[in-house]
Each structure stands twice: as structure tokens, then as C-alpha cells.
Amino acid sequence: MAESVTHDVVSLFSTTHRDFLISNNDHQVKIDSLKGKKVGIYFSSSWCGPCRKFTPFLEEVYNELARKGDFEVIFVSADEDDESFKAYFSKMPWLAIPFSDSDTRNHLDELFDVKGIPHLVLLDESGKVVTDCGTEVIREYGVEGYPFSSERIQELNDQEDEAKRNQTLTSILTSPTRDFVISSDGKKILVSDLEGKTIALYFSLTLDKACSDFTPQLVEVYAKLKAEGKDFEVVAVPLDDNDDDDDEEEEESIKVGLKSFHWLSLPFKDQSCEKLARYFELSDLPTLVVIGPDGKTLHSNVVEFIEEHGIAAYPFTPEKIAELNEIQKAKDASQTFESILVYGDQVLSLEKMEKGKGKDDAKEEKKLEDGWVCDDEVCFKA
Questions:
Q1: Distance CA 143, CA 60 (A)
Q2: Which helix H or strand E contains 257, and what residues bound it?
Q3: Which reaction does this enzyme catalyse, per its entry (predicted)?
Q4: Overall average pLDDT of the 293-303 stretch
């Protein structure tokens, strides 16, 4: 659905037999009440993991903007039964197309060319499509993106570019409502107290195997550097899912881990966690971004250098990284084809590789049988 297309919101959501939407308590709200409001059309489903992860972000923005009285969200369910719809919708503060009206739900799905969920289309007060990439806008800009116009987004992008040029530790780690990080014993540590130190921002997921494998190595390096009196701190940036059903368990797991790791952390579910992930353009986990004493980024990810060189990677400066790269090049050059394929007494044969490939293909086909394929951010129609 191209931007600049304009819709009449009354005809968009109503039928000849229905002139209302419903709230989560089955209260009927006249569609006429949407006139003059900005509207978000939210395509989502209870079975969709990425949707459950995104919904709390949208809810936070919605609740913040509700005070203005000129923004509404309409939920268009992709659930398979009314019971699932009601259970999922009961936690949402906005309105919905009745689940029984499958014709309207399907029509909206086709009209806005929904290929995957979560999917959010944003309309301005005249019904004009501002963007059909609303999930990305909400994730990246939150309530600051309001009214979600291209002019506002450009303004925020310009501000971010300016912030990167004048980056400081305070500009990265603080927010309008928080000027501290959390210590391993739960105390609030002012970000200003960390200025002048080398800071490693550790982006990870609690239950991710790659993160679990790397964390002990980082713990060891951190302990050695602290023992040597280095001005070095690790600040964890927890990126665990925002699925409400798992919040308490995840938060407790993070707290337990923090006590054993002895480093600092941003608060669980703090908005800055996702914002920082986008700011540093994360493409992999775990990621360890290093900020120098001057508040500038020294390196976007030193995980591999710590895995390979341990404490020798410190202080993660361009000069040190260049030195380590030369060491790695020399090591790679000395490898033979046989040393790559032979691991101990075990030879990696082409036959084993083919078998592994077959297993991966079978797993993919099984996913496709259900009609949807999901990754961390979205579920696509197969």
C-alpha cells in the first residue's frame, strides 16, 4: 500500500450491518468517533511470537498518546478462533474489528497488502496513509515519532545524526526519565560517574546459546581487568522478549545473572535497550560495543576478539584491533585445507555435510506446512 493514499475511515471499518468497533470488554464504540483522529491499523495474532513481543511497545506508545485524545488503534486479528482472539485482545487498551466480521478483516488484509505480522498501518486525521511500516516507526522512535509524519521522522533522523556526531556516554545511556544504570547489588549508579572510563555495552539474550557461551569469557576478562585496576566497566543491555507471560521469570533470571557477573546493567525492559540496539545497528548476538573514555565508539563489536584473544584485546582501540587482525591473518595463512576439515581425530566428510543440509531443509519444510514462517521480528505468509 503506497503512502499518500487516502481512505474514508467510516467506510473503511464499517459494513451495512455494523457501524461500531469493540473494546476489550465488548463495549461498542461508534466508528464515527474516529473522524478527525490519527489511526493505527494493527494486524496481529496471539500465536505470533514477534507480535507478542511488539504489542507492549505499541501499548506503551498508545497509553502515552491517549491523553491527547486524537489517536486510536484498530486491532485486526489473524487468530484462528474467537477464544484466542478474546484472550489476546483482553490485554489491549484499544479497539478492534469484531472477530465475527471475517469479511472486513480479510478485506483490510488484502487492501493493505499484509504479507507478514505484526503489521501497522498509520493514517493521519484525514485518512491518508502516513506509512505502512508503522512497526518499524514505533520500534525505532516510540512516542517521539508522533505524529509519525515523514517530516517528523526526518527531524528525528537529523537529531540522531547530530547526536552521533556529538556522542557522549551520557547521551547514549540516559533517557529523559533515567540518569542511572543498575549495579549488581541493585543500587542506582549515575551515568555521569562512568564518564572517562572505557565502557563495554553488552547486548545479549538470557536463553540464547551463543550469548550463554560467550558470557563466561566476558566475565573472566572483566574480572581480570578490574583486578588490574583498569577504568573499565561492562553495562548489560538486556534484549529479552517483552512477552508478558514471561516477564517475571526473565527479570528474575537477569537479576540473578547480574549478581554473579558483578557488572552494571540498564533496567529490564527499559526503552533504551531496543533504542540502543537500533542506534548501534545490531546484526548479531552477542554484541559487545566498546565506548572509549571520550564517549566515542571505539568498536561496534569485539566479541570475536575477546573469544580469540581474551584480555589481550584490551583496550579495544583501533591500533590494538589492527594488531590483532594482523595476528589472525598470519594464523589463517598458516592453516592448511586439511587442518580446517580435520578436528582432532574426526574428519568432516562431504557425506556428513550433505546429511546436515538435508536435516535443515526438512525443518524448513515443516515450518512451511503451517502457512507461516517466523523470525525474530515478523511472521510471513508462506
A1: 8
A2: helix 247-261
A3: [protein]-dithiol + NADP(+) = [protein]-disulfide + NADPH + H(+); [protein]-dithiol + NAD(+) = [protein]-disulfide + NADH + H(+)
A4: 95
